[in-house]
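#lab-general

N.A. 3:47 PM
ok so I finally got the sequence cleaned up, no stray characters, all 250 residues accounted for. can someone with queue access submit it? mine expired

B.Y. 3:52 PM
send it over

N.A. 3:53 PM
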Amino acid sequence: MGDHAATLLVTVAFLTLYVVGVGGTTATAIRIREAWRRRKQDGISFELSPGAELALGAPTLPPAIRRLRMLGWVAFPIALLLALFANPTYPLVVPLTVVMMVALNAFYFTAMQSMGEPLTLTADGFRIGARGHERSVRWIHVTDLIGARMGAFKGMRMSEKGEWQDPKLVPNVVFYRLNHALVQSRKTLLQRLSGFTYYDGVIHNAFGVPTDQLLHVMREWQRRAIDAEAPPFRRPRPGERVESRPRDAE
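B.Y. 4:20 PM
back already:
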């Protein structure tokens, strides 16, 4: 076997890893979304009672598929570089590889738009993510909540109440910003690609409820949590007396 043939086999091997990893993830995401869409869902009550929690489920990828996806994306740049620069004696390798990758990536990012993470709302804050990998946020640390329409590579902010909203642009995510004087947050690659770098986190609405309703509920729960805090965290209400605490009590 010549060197060129060996290089071609290595290229095909990495292409196979990429197709199995990314393509398998795409197929699994489509299957999970269809099963989630056909399920029978009971009515969701957003009423906030003391000590209660509201858990919203979402279609998510199994851990094994996530690891398979990582393997596919690791093989992706290696396969692309080998196809472009390491196989000059096989002219069909480059166009076939490029067409396949463009098509598969388009299917992948489209399918992943229907995936989400479980969300749990509590009186103190919310938790986002699968069990064991949850990220907790307190309402009193949140400074802004907005709805937006997020595509594969770009996003658009949802209009506020009283503003004109394009009926074709249905919001599908909720962005939140944290008080950086109290907590620190790192920007994700998805946030940087979408252009919403002002915000610290995103909640993809795959819960089967309208995004504007979810946003309204989260703002209401945040307002109640802030009102429950004593001054000086919030501004005193009209006529409310603010007592200064001695330094030793802090």
